[in-house]
């Protein structure tokens, strides 16, 4: 995959250089988009900054798409800015607040409420529907990106969490992949008997919080937050936290101190994941590639098999939520919002951009993109399988404040503090439930 993308990038960059030698100073970018939009870039040279986060595969695909866009519009130069997720939101928040954000920004869905809840920090993309084909997106999904009537961003994909397993390890131990509470607990016993440093599932603090919501929704059948109010009592939340402690005690998941002792920045870089000792994750459907790559390319145990699991049955309801995984927005300080909207349209709605990006940002919301990827069988089969399971199973909504930085930031967010104290035994489940409720309610009172 990486070699193909690098080759595509090299070819498109070469084409851009050749074109610039013959058309330098033309200042004209004509042509029409394949799936809507006028495609007229206007006169004069334009420079756009484009920021996003992700892994190497996303970076390579996006750079290749940028090169193709610049070839189509030789008067538009796109300057990329990208990196890993750690520290990215804090950096972009400062840029937004300082008025020097990139023209086109890949944003998390909750950034709309966090950083443009007043509808003023991102451009209303409704104003550029002549070059950005909004008819490709379901209106109900677009509504989730609006402040009032202003469209703050265009959704890229819908996502949700699903269980993934290292089938190679489960087969070695002779343990079936878990499908319900009993088989999950039985897996913990089987893995411990095989080796003290083997666990069927590993979750960090944020993973545990999302898993807590999944468990409670499965048991009680009500959303975590609705209309800005937490729907679960202290006793119900305590029950969910007790279950997480039970998973630790039953050797299903390692304690937070064990995970911290592994000295890894993220689970996909953890040697125990790479070597197959941690054999399960509860992860976004669009983010599984790096976990799969880590075990397939392991130097000590190569070509381990990574599979999508079924949702674990904890109750009478189908727990779990879907959300807009990310979106493209144009910052209000952009001097070229029309050209920025054209870039977004190229990436999401036009054949060339769609084919280059594939499923690097998940299964697209754009009808044109979804149809083309299906027709040409483009994209990661694992991501497609996982996303189909998520869309079929997960029906609960997600409130945008669930992912507010005050709650999910590492290490100072409420989720990290509560789950860390609970795992360390510094708080009882009752105390942890009370702190979690207090932190959530304080966040809502501060920002709603």
UniProtKB/TrEMBL annotation:
SUPFAM superfamilies, alphabetized: Periplasmic binding protein-like II
Top-level taxonomic group: Bacteria
InterPro entries (alphabetical): Bact_solute-bd_prot1, SBP
Span of the signal peptide: 1-23
Gene3D superfamilies linked: Periplasmic binding protein-like II (3.40.190.10)
Pfam families named in the record: SBP_bac_1
Protein name: ABC transporter substrate-binding protein
């Amino acid at each position: 995959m990486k070699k193909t993308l690098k080759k595509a990038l090299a070819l498109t960059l070469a084409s851009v250089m050749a074109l610039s030698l013959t058309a330098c100073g033309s200042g004209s970018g004509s042509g029409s988009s394949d799936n809507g939009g006028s495609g007229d870039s206007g006169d004069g040279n334009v420079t756009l900054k484009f920021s996003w986060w992700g892994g190497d595969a996303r970076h390579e695909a996006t750079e290749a798409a940028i090169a193709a866009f610049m070839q189509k519009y030789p008067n538009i130069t796109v300057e990329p800015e990208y990196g890993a997720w750690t520290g990215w939101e804090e950096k972009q928040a400062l840029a937004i607040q300082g008025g020097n954000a990139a023209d086109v920004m890949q944003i998390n869905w909750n950034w709309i409420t966090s950083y443009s809840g007043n509808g003023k920090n991102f451009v209303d993309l409704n104003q550029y529907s002549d070059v950005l084909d909004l008819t490709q997106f379901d209106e109900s999904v677009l509504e989730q990106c609006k402040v009032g009537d202003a469209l703050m961003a265009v959704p890229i994909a819908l996502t949700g969490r699903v269980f993934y397993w290292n089938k190679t390890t489960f087969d070695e131990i002779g343990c079936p992949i878990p499908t319900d509470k009993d088989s999950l607990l039985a897996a913990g016993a089987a893995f411990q008997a095989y080796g003290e440093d083997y666990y069927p599932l590993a979750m960090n603090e944020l993973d545990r919080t999302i898993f807590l919501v999944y468990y409670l929704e499965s048991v009680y059948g009500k959303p975590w937050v609705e209309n800005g109010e937490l729907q679960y009592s202290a006793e119900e939340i305590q029950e969910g936290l007790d279950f997480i402690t039970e998973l630790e005690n039953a050797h299903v998941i390692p304690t937070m101190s064990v995970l911290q002792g592994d000295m890894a920045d993220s689970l996909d870089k953890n040697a125990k994941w790479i070597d197959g000792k941690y054999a399960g994750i509860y992860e976004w459907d669009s983010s599984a590639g790096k976990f799969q790559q880590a075990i397939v390319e392991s130097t000590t145990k190569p070509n381990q098999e990574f599979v999508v699991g079924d949702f674990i049955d904890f109750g009478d309801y189908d727990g779990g939520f879907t959300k807009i995984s990310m979106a493209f927005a144009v910052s209000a300080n952009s001097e070229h919002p029309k050209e920025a909207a054209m870039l977004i349209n190229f990436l999401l709605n036009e054949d060339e951009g769609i084919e280059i990006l594939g499923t690097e940002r998940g299964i697209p919301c754009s009808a044109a993109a979804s149809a083309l990827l299906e027709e040409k069988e483009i994209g990661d089969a694992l991501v497609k399988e996982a996303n189909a399971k998520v869309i079929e199973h997960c029906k609960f909504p997600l409130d945008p404040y669930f992912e507010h930085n005050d709650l999910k930031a590492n290490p100072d967010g409420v989720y990290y503090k509560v789950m860390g104290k609970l795992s360390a035994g510094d708080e009882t489940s009752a105390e942890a439930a009370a702190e979690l409720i207090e932190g959530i309610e304080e966040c809502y009172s501060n920002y709603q």
